[in-house]
Amino acid sequence: MKATVRVPATVANLGPGFDLVALALQLQNEVHAQGTGDGVVAVVVDGGGADAELLDPLRNLVARAYVQACTQLGVPDDERGVTLRCVNAIPMSRGLGSSAAAALSGVLVAVALQRASWQESDILGCVSGFEGHSDNAAAALLGGLAICAPGAAPQRCDVPDELHAVLFAPQRRLATHEARQVVATSFSRADALFNAGRCALLVRALLLKDYSALREAMDDRWHQAQRASLFPAMGALIDAAYAAGADGACLAGAGPSILALTARDPAPLTAALSAAAARLSVEGSVLVLRPRNFGSRVEVRP
């Protein structure tokens, strides 16, 4: 049995929506899986840097998630054999949901090869065991804008196709666990109300295409200021994006990438972010992507 899984990049938080909202983008990783009929899990990697961690089935997140899903499905060890060829296009440890894409890919491969009847909640529950939160995984699975309210099933809505997501992705990586360590575990009532209100404004602005409201809607008091200590260029890059006409801008996920949204020509933003990064001596590249209003895709073949 063979399966191909295609899982998109995602950007979480979008400013105020810490661990609550995420947006799927038109950039994807692929995993081509072939069952081998034995108990050996093997990994081959194309792209993303085929270092030792990615090639080791005990450390590769796609393989680990596959094994965990097989365990939850009750698949015997000697029937889990698979070769996983991972084609990586999503930059790793840049705030673009690479770890969620990897974990989700592994789970979806297991479900596909075992022809399991897992629901969305089962899939996300398994992935969340690796991620600790479900916003990126929900957006990657469902597409569009995913809203993950604690205690409720994730919901999604379409995002205008006319939007451009302009991302400056620094060359340096930033591990999510490192970025989470600097974020407070509790907030004042004023800051909680501030961000809750901004989340509501953000969803409204995207649904109604009120792009003029995005700048205010993407303001944040929960995590960006704290994470600036890990990436000091963040504020200057966001300012450069706004000066070039961005409708909204923020840290992408846990960072260190910067996201700018616009419904206009993205070229001025691309130039401005590149120039600002050069001025700040921050090496990196600019990606221009569209929202992806469909989620992961799975193809199964004999």
From TrEMBL:
It catalyses: L-homoserine + ATP = O-phospho-L-homoserine + ADP + H(+). It comes from the Bacteria. It comes from Candidatus Amunia macphersoniae. Its EC number is 2.7.1.39. GO terms for biological process: threonine biosynthetic process. GO terms for cellular component: cytoplasm. Pfam families: GHMP_kinases_C, GHMP_kinases_N. ATP binds at residues 91-101. This is Homoserine kinase. It is found in: Cytoplasm. Belongs to the GHMP kinase family. Homoserine kinase subfamily. PANTHER family: HOMOSERINE KINASE (PTHR20861:SF1), HOMOSERINE/4-DIPHOSPHOCYTIDYL-2-C-METHYL-D-ERYTHRITOL KINASE (PTHR20861). Residues 203-268 form the GHMP kinase C-terminal domain. Catalyzes the ATP-dependent phosphorylation of L-homoserine to L-homoserine phosphate. The keyword Nucleotide-binding applies. Residues 60-144 form the GHMP kinase N-terminal domain. Its main location: cytoplasm. Pathway: Amino-acid biosynthesis; L-threonine biosynthesis; L-threonine from L-aspartate: step 4/5. InterPro entries: GHMP_kinase_C_dom (IPR013750), GHMP_kinase_C_sf (IPR036554), GHMP_kinase_N_dom (IPR006204), GHMP_knse_ATP-bd_CS (IPR006203), Homoserine_kinase (IPR000870), Ribosomal_Su5_D2-typ_SF (IPR020568), Ribsml_uS5_D2-typ_fold_subgr (IPR014721). Keywords: Amino-acid biosynthesis, ATP-binding, Cytoplasm, Kinase, Nucleotide-binding, Threonine biosynthesis, Transferase. GO terms for molecular function: ATP binding; homoserine kinase activity.
